[in-house]
Specification:
Elements (H helix, E strand, L loop, with lengths): L1 E8 L5 H15 L4 E7 L4 H7 L5 H10 L2 E4 L19 H7 L4 E7 L17 E7 L12 E2 L4 E2 L6 H20 L5 E6 L5 H14 L6 E6 H10 L6 E4 L1 H14 L7 E5 L4 E5 L16 H13 L3 H17 L13 H17 L1
Parallel strand pairs: 1-2, 1-3, 3-12, 5-10, 8-9, 8-10
Antiparallel strand pairs: 4-5, 4-11, 6-7, 11-12
Helix pairs in contact: 1-9, 1-11, 5-6, 7-8, 9-10, 10-11
The structure holds 3-isopropylmalic acid and manganese (II) ion (MN).
The site of 3-isopropylmalic acid has 6 residues, from loops.
Length: 357
Protein backbone atom coordinates (compact mmCIF):
# COMPACT_ATOMS: atom_id res chain seq x y z
CA UNK A 1 0.00 0.00 0.00
CA UNK A 2 1.19 3.48 -0.86
CA UNK A 3 2.36 5.60 2.08
CA UNK A 4 2.38 9.39 2.21
CA UNK A 5 4.63 11.01 4.74
CA UNK A 6 2.80 14.01 6.23
CA UNK A 7 4.35 16.63 8.49
CA UNK A 8 2.07 17.92 11.25
CA UNK A 9 2.63 21.38 12.67
CA UNK A 10 0.07 21.46 15.45
CA UNK A 11 0.57 25.17 16.10
CA UNK A 12 -0.35 27.48 18.96
CA UNK A 13 -3.58 28.42 20.75
CA UNK A 14 -6.45 26.44 19.23
CA UNK A 15 -4.06 24.86 16.69
CA UNK A 16 -3.53 21.48 18.42
CA UNK A 17 -7.25 20.78 18.94
CA UNK A 18 -8.01 21.72 15.32
CA UNK A 19 -5.24 19.53 13.92
CA UNK A 20 -6.43 16.67 16.16
CA UNK A 21 -9.92 16.97 14.64
CA UNK A 22 -8.56 17.09 11.08
CA UNK A 23 -6.36 14.02 11.66
CA UNK A 24 -9.38 12.11 12.98
CA UNK A 25 -11.33 12.95 9.81
CA UNK A 26 -8.38 12.00 7.59
CA UNK A 27 -8.27 8.68 9.44
CA UNK A 28 -11.85 7.98 8.39
CA UNK A 29 -11.06 8.22 4.66
CA UNK A 30 -7.45 7.07 4.39
CA UNK A 31 -6.32 3.50 4.93
CA UNK A 32 -7.88 1.70 1.96
CA UNK A 33 -5.58 2.60 -0.94
CA UNK A 34 -2.92 4.54 0.92
CA UNK A 35 -1.61 5.25 4.41
CA UNK A 36 -0.78 8.56 5.98
CA UNK A 37 2.34 8.45 8.16
CA UNK A 38 2.69 11.49 10.37
CA UNK A 39 5.85 13.19 11.49
CA UNK A 40 5.52 15.89 14.15
CA UNK A 41 7.32 19.15 13.41
CA UNK A 42 7.92 21.59 16.23
CA UNK A 43 7.33 25.10 14.86
CA UNK A 44 5.51 28.30 15.77
CA UNK A 45 5.39 30.83 18.59
CA UNK A 46 5.72 28.40 21.48
CA UNK A 47 8.67 26.82 19.67
CA UNK A 48 10.25 30.26 19.35
CA UNK A 49 9.76 30.88 23.06
CA UNK A 50 11.39 27.57 23.98
CA UNK A 51 14.15 27.39 21.39
CA UNK A 52 14.72 30.91 20.06
CA UNK A 53 13.66 30.03 16.52
CA UNK A 54 10.14 29.59 15.07
CA UNK A 55 11.26 26.79 12.74
CA UNK A 56 14.75 25.30 12.73
CA UNK A 57 16.76 24.96 9.52
CA UNK A 58 16.59 21.14 9.85
CA UNK A 59 12.80 21.21 10.12
CA UNK A 60 12.53 23.54 7.12
CA UNK A 61 14.65 21.06 5.16
CA UNK A 62 12.44 18.20 6.35
CA UNK A 63 9.35 20.04 5.09
CA UNK A 64 11.11 20.67 1.77
CA UNK A 65 12.51 17.24 1.06
CA UNK A 66 11.39 14.74 3.69
CA UNK A 67 7.59 14.74 3.39
CA UNK A 68 4.88 14.60 0.71
CA UNK A 69 2.85 17.43 2.27
CA UNK A 70 2.37 19.36 5.51
CA UNK A 71 -0.78 19.95 7.51
CA UNK A 72 -0.36 23.03 9.65
CA UNK A 73 -2.50 24.50 12.42
CA UNK A 74 -2.60 28.24 13.10
CA UNK A 75 0.45 29.66 14.88
CA UNK A 76 1.31 32.81 16.80
CA UNK A 77 1.01 34.12 20.36
CA UNK A 78 0.48 37.85 20.80
CA UNK A 79 3.09 38.21 23.55
CA UNK A 80 5.86 36.39 21.69
CA UNK A 81 7.55 39.24 19.83
CA UNK A 82 10.75 40.00 17.97
CA UNK A 83 12.85 42.98 19.09
CA UNK A 84 11.35 45.04 16.22
CA UNK A 85 7.85 44.57 17.70
CA UNK A 86 6.45 42.16 15.09
CA UNK A 87 5.22 38.69 16.10
CA UNK A 88 8.02 36.12 16.40
CA UNK A 89 6.11 32.88 15.99
CA UNK A 90 4.39 33.45 12.65
CA UNK A 91 5.56 31.00 10.01
CA UNK A 92 4.13 32.73 6.94
CA UNK A 93 7.40 34.34 5.91
CA UNK A 94 9.55 31.39 6.97
CA UNK A 95 7.60 28.66 5.15
CA UNK A 96 6.13 30.50 2.16
CA UNK A 97 9.35 32.24 1.19
CA UNK A 98 11.66 29.54 2.59
CA UNK A 99 9.94 26.76 0.62
CA UNK A 100 9.16 29.03 -2.38
CA UNK A 101 5.41 28.34 -2.19
CA UNK A 102 4.31 31.00 -4.61
CA UNK A 103 0.57 30.33 -4.85
CA UNK A 104 -1.76 30.59 -1.89
CA UNK A 105 -5.04 29.00 -2.93
CA UNK A 106 -7.95 30.28 -0.83
CA UNK A 107 -11.39 28.86 -1.66
CA UNK A 108 -14.32 30.99 -0.48
CA UNK A 109 -17.40 28.76 -0.37
CA UNK A 110 -20.77 29.26 1.29
CA UNK A 111 -21.60 25.90 2.87
CA UNK A 112 -25.10 24.55 3.62
CA UNK A 113 -26.52 25.52 6.99
CA UNK A 114 -24.10 28.45 7.34
CA UNK A 115 -25.53 31.97 7.46
CA UNK A 116 -23.84 34.49 5.21
CA UNK A 117 -23.35 38.04 6.46
CA UNK A 118 -24.83 39.00 3.09
CA UNK A 119 -28.62 38.99 2.89
CA UNK A 120 -30.29 36.47 0.60
CA UNK A 121 -27.28 34.22 -0.10
CA UNK A 122 -27.57 30.46 0.21
CA UNK A 123 -25.16 27.54 -0.21
CA UNK A 124 -23.83 27.40 -3.74
CA UNK A 125 -24.25 31.16 -4.30
CA UNK A 126 -20.69 31.92 -3.23
CA UNK A 127 -17.98 29.67 -4.61
CA UNK A 128 -14.77 31.26 -5.81
CA UNK A 129 -11.05 30.91 -5.19
CA UNK A 130 -8.61 33.68 -4.38
CA UNK A 131 -5.12 32.90 -5.65
CA UNK A 132 -2.87 35.03 -3.52
CA UNK A 133 0.71 35.60 -4.71
CA UNK A 134 2.64 34.26 -1.75
CA UNK A 135 6.34 35.10 -1.95
CA UNK A 136 6.59 38.76 -3.00
CA UNK A 137 4.34 41.85 -3.16
CA UNK A 138 4.24 44.10 -0.12
CA UNK A 139 5.09 41.22 2.20
CA UNK A 140 8.45 40.85 0.49
CA UNK A 141 9.23 43.57 3.01
CA UNK A 142 8.57 41.22 5.94
CA UNK A 143 11.41 41.76 8.40
CA UNK A 144 13.06 44.25 6.03
CA UNK A 145 11.23 47.53 6.64
CA UNK A 146 13.73 50.40 6.94
CA UNK A 147 13.48 53.54 9.00
CA UNK A 148 13.59 54.92 12.46
CA UNK A 149 11.01 55.93 15.01
CA UNK A 150 9.79 58.85 12.90
CA UNK A 151 9.53 57.22 9.53
CA UNK A 152 9.47 53.68 8.18
CA UNK A 153 9.27 52.44 4.63
CA UNK A 154 8.18 49.00 3.36
CA UNK A 155 8.83 48.19 -0.29
CA UNK A 156 6.36 46.35 -2.54
CA UNK A 157 8.21 44.03 -4.92
CA UNK A 158 6.60 42.59 -8.06
CA UNK A 159 8.74 40.48 -10.39
CA UNK A 160 7.92 39.27 -13.85
CA UNK A 161 8.81 35.64 -13.03
CA UNK A 162 6.84 35.69 -9.78
CA UNK A 163 3.78 37.08 -11.53
CA UNK A 164 4.05 34.68 -14.48
CA UNK A 165 4.02 31.61 -12.27
CA UNK A 166 1.15 32.67 -10.01
CA UNK A 167 -0.99 33.80 -12.97
CA UNK A 168 -0.36 30.51 -14.76
CA UNK A 169 -1.44 28.66 -11.62
CA UNK A 170 -4.66 30.73 -11.52
CA UNK A 171 -5.46 29.97 -15.18
CA UNK A 172 -4.76 26.25 -14.67
CA UNK A 173 -7.10 26.26 -11.69
CA UNK A 174 -9.84 28.01 -13.70
CA UNK A 175 -9.45 25.40 -16.45
CA UNK A 176 -9.74 22.64 -13.82
CA UNK A 177 -12.84 24.22 -12.27
CA UNK A 178 -14.33 24.74 -15.73
CA UNK A 179 -14.51 20.94 -16.07
CA UNK A 180 -16.93 20.82 -13.13
CA UNK A 181 -19.25 23.48 -14.47
CA UNK A 182 -17.66 26.71 -13.24
CA UNK A 183 -17.48 29.70 -15.56
CA UNK A 184 -13.76 29.36 -16.24
CA UNK A 185 -12.94 33.01 -15.62
CA UNK A 186 -9.91 34.59 -13.97
CA UNK A 187 -10.22 38.07 -12.47
CA UNK A 188 -7.05 40.13 -12.13
CA UNK A 189 -7.26 42.32 -9.01
CA UNK A 190 -4.77 45.18 -8.62
CA UNK A 191 -4.28 48.92 -8.15
CA UNK A 192 -2.57 49.38 -11.50
CA UNK A 193 -4.13 52.82 -11.80
CA UNK A 194 -1.86 53.97 -8.95
CA UNK A 195 1.08 51.57 -8.50
CA UNK A 196 3.66 50.68 -11.14
CA UNK A 197 4.30 47.37 -9.42
CA UNK A 198 0.63 46.46 -9.88
CA UNK A 199 0.70 47.67 -13.48
CA UNK A 200 3.47 45.14 -14.12
CA UNK A 201 1.29 42.47 -12.48
CA UNK A 202 -1.58 43.34 -14.86
CA UNK A 203 0.69 43.36 -17.94
CA UNK A 204 2.05 39.92 -17.09
CA UNK A 205 -1.48 38.63 -16.39
CA UNK A 206 -2.51 39.78 -19.89
CA UNK A 207 0.46 37.98 -21.39
CA UNK A 208 -0.40 34.72 -19.58
CA UNK A 209 -4.07 35.06 -20.58
CA UNK A 210 -3.05 34.73 -24.25
CA UNK A 211 -1.97 31.15 -23.57
CA UNK A 212 -5.46 30.33 -22.21
CA UNK A 213 -7.90 31.42 -24.94
CA UNK A 214 -10.56 29.11 -23.44
CA UNK A 215 -10.57 31.04 -20.13
CA UNK A 216 -12.40 34.35 -19.72
CA UNK A 217 -10.72 37.33 -18.07
CA UNK A 218 -11.87 40.30 -16.05
CA UNK A 219 -9.92 43.23 -14.55
CA UNK A 220 -10.86 44.96 -11.33
CA UNK A 221 -9.15 47.56 -9.20
CA UNK A 222 -8.80 46.27 -5.66
CA UNK A 223 -11.18 48.78 -4.10
CA UNK A 224 -13.85 47.95 -6.68
CA UNK A 225 -13.15 44.26 -6.08
CA UNK A 226 -13.86 44.68 -2.36
CA UNK A 227 -17.23 46.13 -3.28
CA UNK A 228 -17.94 43.50 -5.92
CA UNK A 229 -17.15 40.59 -3.57
CA UNK A 230 -19.94 41.90 -1.34
CA UNK A 231 -22.44 42.91 -4.04
CA UNK A 232 -21.97 40.17 -6.66
CA UNK A 233 -19.91 37.32 -5.15
CA UNK A 234 -21.83 34.76 -7.24
CA UNK A 235 -20.16 36.07 -10.41
CA UNK A 236 -16.60 35.13 -9.43
CA UNK A 237 -14.67 31.98 -10.20
CA UNK A 238 -10.89 32.49 -9.75
CA UNK A 239 -9.23 35.75 -8.71
CA UNK A 240 -5.49 36.36 -8.73
CA UNK A 241 -3.72 39.17 -6.90
CA UNK A 242 -0.68 40.51 -5.10
CA UNK A 243 0.14 39.12 -1.65
CA UNK A 244 -1.17 41.91 0.61
CA UNK A 245 -4.38 42.34 -1.43
CA UNK A 246 -4.93 38.58 -1.23
CA UNK A 247 -4.49 38.61 2.52
CA UNK A 248 -7.07 41.37 2.97
CA UNK A 249 -9.64 40.26 0.39
CA UNK A 250 -9.59 36.63 1.51
CA UNK A 251 -10.67 37.72 5.00
CA UNK A 252 -13.38 39.84 3.39
CA UNK A 253 -14.47 36.76 1.43
CA UNK A 254 -14.42 34.72 4.64
CA UNK A 255 -16.81 37.18 6.26
CA UNK A 256 -19.35 36.51 3.50
CA UNK A 257 -19.35 32.73 4.03
CA UNK A 258 -19.76 32.51 7.80
CA UNK A 259 -16.37 33.80 8.90
CA UNK A 260 -12.74 32.98 8.30
CA UNK A 261 -13.00 29.99 10.65
CA UNK A 262 -14.49 27.95 7.80
CA UNK A 263 -11.87 28.93 5.21
CA UNK A 264 -8.99 26.60 4.23
CA UNK A 265 -5.92 27.33 2.15
CA UNK A 266 -3.12 25.60 0.33
CA UNK A 267 0.35 27.08 -0.04
CA UNK A 268 1.69 25.56 -3.23
CA UNK A 269 5.06 25.56 -4.94
CA UNK A 270 6.16 23.42 -7.89
CA UNK A 271 6.17 20.30 -5.69
CA UNK A 272 6.24 21.24 -1.99
CA UNK A 273 2.97 22.29 -0.31
CA UNK A 274 1.40 22.94 3.04
CA UNK A 275 -2.22 23.31 4.04
CA UNK A 276 -3.74 25.41 6.81
CA UNK A 277 -6.83 27.41 7.76
CA UNK A 278 -6.59 31.13 6.94
CA UNK A 279 -7.39 32.27 10.48
CA UNK A 280 -5.12 32.76 13.49
CA UNK A 281 -4.49 30.79 16.69
CA UNK A 282 -7.10 32.54 18.93
CA UNK A 283 -5.30 31.69 22.22
CA UNK A 284 -8.28 32.99 24.25
CA UNK A 285 -10.48 30.21 22.80
CA UNK A 286 -8.02 27.37 23.34
CA UNK A 287 -9.22 24.37 25.35
CA UNK A 288 -12.75 25.75 25.80
CA UNK A 289 -14.55 23.59 23.26
CA UNK A 290 -15.42 26.68 21.21
CA UNK A 291 -12.98 26.55 18.32
CA UNK A 292 -14.29 25.83 14.85
CA UNK A 293 -12.25 23.15 13.03
CA UNK A 294 -14.01 23.48 9.66
CA UNK A 295 -11.23 25.53 8.00
CA UNK A 296 -8.64 23.04 9.26
CA UNK A 297 -10.66 20.02 8.11
CA UNK A 298 -11.20 21.56 4.67
CA UNK A 299 -7.44 22.26 4.55
CA UNK A 300 -6.89 18.53 5.13
CA UNK A 301 -9.29 17.80 2.23
CA UNK A 302 -7.27 20.14 0.00
CA UNK A 303 -4.18 18.22 1.03
CA UNK A 304 -5.77 14.96 -0.14
CA UNK A 305 -6.61 16.62 -3.49
CA UNK A 306 -2.97 17.66 -3.76
CA UNK A 307 -1.78 14.11 -3.03
CA UNK A 308 -3.98 12.88 -5.89
CA UNK A 309 -6.82 11.55 -3.72
CA UNK A 310 -9.53 13.84 -5.08
CA UNK A 311 -12.20 11.26 -4.36
CA UNK A 312 -11.41 11.31 -0.64
CA UNK A 313 -11.05 15.10 -0.56
CA UNK A 314 -14.51 15.26 -2.07
CA UNK A 315 -15.84 12.69 0.42
CA UNK A 316 -14.77 14.92 3.31
CA UNK A 317 -16.39 17.98 1.71
CA UNK A 318 -19.59 16.01 1.05
CA UNK A 319 -19.72 14.67 4.63
CA UNK A 320 -19.33 18.22 5.91
CA UNK A 321 -22.12 19.47 3.62
CA UNK A 322 -24.39 16.66 4.82
CA UNK A 323 -23.56 17.28 8.48
CA UNK A 324 -24.18 21.02 8.17
CA UNK A 325 -27.39 20.62 6.16
CA UNK A 326 -28.82 18.10 8.63
CA UNK A 327 -27.75 20.01 11.75
CA UNK A 328 -25.37 17.26 12.93
CA UNK A 329 -22.74 19.99 12.80
CA UNK A 330 -23.82 23.48 13.71
CA UNK A 331 -21.98 26.78 13.30
CA UNK A 332 -23.18 29.77 15.31
CA UNK A 333 -23.64 33.25 13.84
CA UNK A 334 -20.33 34.17 15.54
CA UNK A 335 -18.53 31.40 13.64
CA UNK A 336 -18.10 28.98 16.59
CA UNK A 337 -18.77 25.26 16.09
CA UNK A 338 -21.27 23.89 18.59
CA UNK A 339 -19.46 21.33 20.79
CA UNK A 340 -16.04 22.43 19.50
CA UNK A 341 -13.53 20.52 17.36
CA UNK A 342 -14.14 17.10 18.90
CA UNK A 343 -17.90 17.21 18.27
CA UNK A 344 -17.38 18.20 14.63
CA UNK A 345 -14.78 15.48 14.10
CA UNK A 346 -17.02 12.83 15.72
CA UNK A 347 -19.98 13.79 13.53
CA UNK A 348 -17.91 13.64 10.34
CA UNK A 349 -16.14 10.42 11.26
CA UNK A 350 -19.44 8.65 11.95
CA UNK A 351 -20.93 9.92 8.67
CA UNK A 352 -17.87 8.71 6.75
CA UNK A 353 -17.92 5.37 8.56
CA UNK A 354 -21.63 4.87 7.79
CA UNK A 355 -20.92 5.65 4.14
CA UNK A 356 -18.09 3.14 3.83
CA UNK A 357 -20.07 0.35 5.48
C1 LIG B 1 -2.63 34.66 6.65
C2 LIG B 1 -2.15 35.35 7.88
C3 LIG B 1 -0.66 35.59 7.83
C4 LIG B 1 -0.32 36.46 6.65
C5 LIG B 1 -0.10 36.22 9.09
C6 LIG B 1 -0.50 35.49 10.32
C7 LIG B 1 1.39 36.37 9.00
O1 LIG B 1 -2.85 36.54 8.10
O2 LIG B 1 -2.17 33.55 6.36
O3 LIG B 1 -3.47 35.20 5.95
O4 LIG B 1 -0.19 37.66 6.76
O5 LIG B 1 -0.17 35.97 5.58
MN1 LIG C 1 -4.51 36.82 6.77
Amino acid sequence: MRTHRIALIRGDGIGPELVEAAVAVLGAVAGQDYRLDYVEVDAGADTYRRTGTACSAENLELLRTGVDATLKGPVGLPDVRLPDGTEAGLLGGVLRVGLDLFANIRPVTLLPGVTSALAGRAAGDIDYVIVRENTEGLYASRGKGVGNRWAVSDTLMTTREGTLRVCRRAFELARERGKSGKSGTVTCVDKSNVLRSHALFRDVFREVAQDYPDIGTEFLYADAAAQALVLRPHEFDVLVMENFLGDVLSDLGGATVGGISVCPSGNLGERVAYFEPIHGSAPDLAGRGLANPVGQILAAALMLDHLGHHRDGARIRRALDTALASGRVRITAEGAAVGGPAAVADALVSLLDEESR
